[in-house]
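task queued by scheduler; priority normal; single chain, no ligands, no partner chains; default sampling; output format set to structure tokens
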Amino acid sequence: MNMHATARSIPGVAASKNILGIAVASIDWGEAIALLKTSLAERRFTKVSFLNAHNANIACADREFAKALDDFLILPDGIGVDIAARLLYGAPFPSNLNGTDFVPGFLRATTRPLTVGLLGASRRNADGAARKLSALAPQHSFAVIHDGYFSPEQEPEIVARIEALRPDVLLVAMGVPRQELWIARNMTERHCTLPIAVGALLDFLSGAVPRAPAWMRRLRLEWVFRLLIEPRRLWHRYIVGNPLFLARALRQKLRGSKAVS
């Protein structure tokens, strides 16, 4: 992956920052909501994902994943990419648009009734997330398509189910990079308008996985909380992955990188 290429131009986005070769939209919370609302109003098929230190590390090692991200609107997620942006461009991203907060915020802020499909997580957690979202944004209709544990043989039926429903928004929660690759391979404008790769969002919304206390989120320390509650699963992602990501950003800095504005 070319980690020192200039950031590409993203339709509808005035500026982007190249983080390890991935063009990340440099927009604030309100601009991001307005952009997605416009995509919905114009029925402009837009694949959406989020970049954090972990995803960026995976993209550096997985060429197929990195290539798939070129066709997504990528939003900045977390303190790691903000540190990288400061290092590379002298300023952080305008807003932290992590999907756990941004996606529910976007749905609440969108008053026009939408059909929202949920795909992924366990069925119990997906159902719980649908109930939570219905309470947060009752103007929309939420439908669980399937859990995330399906075989290749089941996939055509699931894709056909999505096409029949044709939700305005499809939340895909299968983990990185499976969810982005699944969207890239299976979703087109025939299936939905906004397929959004949301990681563990459905698990958080259902309450199965706790969020960090508000004060930790304000201090950008939610990753520490997650490490404390799931050390075996997450120690490599954070203890090894975070320094590796910052070393890669420093290497990009030394090689030279410029933003497209």
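post-processing summary
- The first helix runs from residue 29 to 41.
- Residues 16-255 form one domain.
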